[in-house]
Amino acid sequence: QVQLVESGGGLVQAGGSLRLSCAASGSIFNINTMGWYRQAPGKQRELVATITSGGRTNYADSVKGRFSISRGNAKNTVYLQLSSLKLEDTAVYYCHALLQRMIQFRAEDYWGQGTQVTVSS
Question: Are 72 and 79 in contact (CB under 8 A)?
Fold first, then answer.
């Protein structure tokens, strides 16, 4: 089985910072892409940022210049540094990985359980 476990969410004032972490564990052959998505109440889940195994990053326009995604040395971890937080950043943040469990398997999507980020005024 594969698990993605997030940590680092919490309550922060507007303008503040947080760092989210996500670690993938289990039977994993290769991780293609890892990333973060978020879902605010009453809204659809949306992409925040992604990073490929080669280090290529992609950000939603709403977070460019404020958030930074990176992968750990072990390549099975991904981090999201959230800075200059705004009220509208309040959401549940989900870790995502596109990975192969074994060489003969196709890449599949895996999700973490989500971590709440609440930005207060």
Answer: yes
| Tens digits of residue pLDDT in 63-109 | 999 999 999 987 899 999 999 999 999 999 999 999 999 888 899 99
Pairing of strands 30-39, 46-52: antiparallel
Phi and psi at 87, nearest 5°, equal: -55, -35
Q: What type of residue sits at position 33? A: T
Quick one: tokens of 59?
């950000």
Q: Which residues, 6 or more positions from 61, have their beta carbon under 8 angstroms from its beta carbon?
A: none
Q: What burial class does residue 120 get, using C-beta atoms within 10 Å of its C-beta: 0-12 exposed, 13-18 middle, 19+ buried?
A: exposed
Tokens representing residue 31 in the block: 């991780």
Comparing CA positions, the residue from 77, 20, 87, 83 lying closest to residue 51 is 77
Taken in order 39, 44, 45, 49, the sign of the CA dihedral is negative
Question: What would the DSSP string read from start to end of 51-79?
Answer: EETT--EEE-TTTTTTEEEEE-TTSSEEE
